[in-house]
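fold-stage: in
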Amino acid sequence: MCLAVPGRVLDIGEKDGTRMATVDFGGVQKEVCLEYLPDLQVGEYAIVHVGFALQRLDEESARQTLALFEELGMLQEEFGDPWEQAAAHAEADSPWPFADGPYADGPYAGEATAPQEAQEGRQ
């Protein structure tokens, strides 16, 4: 899911001719493009979507929204490590997903090959 998340501008600079900022999203810091809000200043809040600051936001609204996103677990979903998230959703004792097929004992076990007619068609 891609959310539009409020964040606080920590610093502003230029990268390859583009105005950029380091923005804090409730403890997670990301680099954000400021081209749509060229007058945004350090300490101000903005709504950020897919790496672009899109709209200035007052501090109280930003804090309330961040608190709600945190409560709902949406900040972790948006900014967390995707590998950690996948591991958290997987069942610890689930069997290998291809338990009934040629790869039953893990990656590449059994080294299944394509049917003979498919192999002949590739020649």
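fold-stage: in (second)
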Amino acid sequence: MTTVTRMHAVVSGTVQGVGFRWWTARKADGLELVGYARNLFDGTVEVEAEGPSPAVDRLMELLQSGPPSAEVTEVALRPVVPHGDTEGFSILH
């Protein structure tokens, strides 16, 4: 049995206006994760992802570098309680 986890990440650096949310959603879809990515007012990107632990861990690793157009300086991670989302991975505005 695979453990379902949910992680919250705040990604800092040059991460807005470079396709970071779209790139994250594409990676999350490929890993069959649910959750969201959205820009925050302070210039960071917030990501929450839920699914099998290995897939969530992989996405969190990918966030460390992001797409080629981004420059990630920090990723702050914290576990959160899984929501049981079934809607897929969304880009929020």
